């Protein structure tokens, strides 16, 4: 998450869900499944994170509507 390191905004796949899916695939492979036979999965959950400290340092105002959409706001 770039905002936690000082970035302004991040929008991307929920990494927890991605790693969970990786674990499920690894389990299937360890139980004998052929990797080529496993389906390709795309992320279905995404996370919007806004860093208000960075916005303030840059002299930016984040619209309230965008803050309402955010999954996490760093103050």
Features:
single chain, 75 residues, alpha+beta, three-stranded mixed sheet, 3 strands, 19% strand
Summed up, what is this model?
The chain contains 3 helices and 3 strands; from the N terminus they run βαβααβ. It has helices spanning 15-30, 52-57, 64-69, and strands at 9-13, 46-51, 72-74.
Residue runs with pLDDT of under 50 for 5 or more positions: none
Biggest sheet record? 3 strands, mixed
Instruction: Tell me the overall shape.
Output: elongated
Order of helices and strands: EHEHHE
Report what the structure shows.
- With 75 residues, the chain is an alpha+beta fold.
- Helix content is 37%, strand content 19%.
- The protein has three helices and three strands, in the order E-H-E-H-H-E.
- A three-stranded mixed sheet has the order 1-2-3.
- The mean pLDDT is 93.
SSE topology sketch:
Layout: E1 9-13, H1 15-30, E2 46-51, H2 52-57, H3 64-69, E3 72-74
């Amino acid at each position: 998450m770039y905002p936690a390191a000082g970035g302004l905004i991040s929008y991307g796949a929920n990494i927890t869900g991605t790693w969970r899916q990786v674990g499920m695939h690894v389990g299937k492979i360890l139980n004998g499944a052929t990797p080529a036979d496993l389906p390709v999965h795309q992320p279905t959950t995404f996370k919007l994170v806004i860093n208000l400290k960075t916005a303030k340092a840059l002299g930016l105002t984040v619209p309230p509507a965008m803050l309402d959409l955010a999954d996490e706001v760093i103050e």
